[in-house]
Amino acid sequence: MGRLDNRVAVITGSSRGIGLAIARMFVNEGASVVITSSSKTNVDAAVASFPPGRACGLACDVSSPEETERLIAASVVRFGRIDCFINNAGISEPFCSITSGDPAVWSRVIDTNLKGTYNGCRAAIGYFLRENIPGKVINMAGSGTDRGSNTPFISAYGSTKAAIARFTYAIAEEYRQTPLSIMLLHPGLVRTGMVSAENPTPELSRQLATFNTILDIFAQPPEVAARLAVKMASSWSDGRTGVYLSALDSWTKKKLLLTYPFRKLTGRIDRQTY
Fold first, then answer.
1. Are 95 and 199 within 8 A, CB to CB?
2. Distance between CA 70 and CA 54 in Å, rounded?
3. Which CATH superfamily is domain 8-196+222-255 in?
4. For residues 10 and 84, is the Cβ–Cβ distance under 8 A?
5. Residue 189, Cα to own-chain centre: how many angstroms?
């Protein structure tokens, strides 16, 4: 028996990285999952790695309200219902100042991360209310969410994560009198393509040693966040809303910092890119 037996979850941006790790753990816990990405090629490759019948894939540009609504409809056609919607899709701009960066790229981060979360929430909540399903909506926090979490040189990404937190708490209050659970998950620091130091910008090159040290100290595998996502999607959150869980809370930060010298000395730092 799994914690998510017979449940169906739609996970945006789940063809790789954190989203894919969440999808795998959901399937291990008994759920069926809908894998999405803006790239059909990436979606098809990810779906092929799952047991037959437990995952389907749909290409979706979450910045489009129409495509997000179609994602909901197609998921229901495939699996009969949806129980959980996770707004995981996200991108970041190259590491640079606002005067050296491309305004179009800055705007694209806003469209994908913030507008994409809005589109996903609007479509999923509308579906849950129409079908009288006590659904779970999980939005993704990140650098910029917590107090004191400044994000120089990735101002678009940090701004979206701060806004997503405020947005999540706002809609949790809007629907507090319903059975919906609207929640916020901070996946912590994970070595994905988004935080890769390959082909660094001039700004990142100047801070590369510090950047790599921070990764060595605080980066965790995506399964840490995936376990929290399972908890939030399970019966644990029934009757709860406005919940915030973090894979990099104060206690975890202290533990990772204190164990860093030992992990470095014994070669136990995981530098795999997920």
1. no
2. 20
3. NAD(P)-binding Rossmann-like Domain (3.40.50.720)
4. yes
5. 12
Asked whether the predicted pLDDT for residue 203 surpasses 90, the reply is no
Domain boundaries, the chain: 8-196+222-255
- What's the chain's Rg over C-alpha atoms? 18
176 — pLDDT class (breaks 50, 70, 90) = very high
Edge-to-edge strands, sheet with 181-186:
55-59, 32-37, 8-11, 84-87, 136-140, 181-186, 244-246
> Is this structure's pTM higher than 0.85?
yes
Catalytic residues: 157
Residues in CB range of 189: below 8 A, 6 or more apart: 143, 195, 214, 215, 218, 219, 220, 248
DSSP secondary structure of 141-180: --TTSSTT---TT-HHHHHHHHHHHHHHHHHHHHTTTSS-
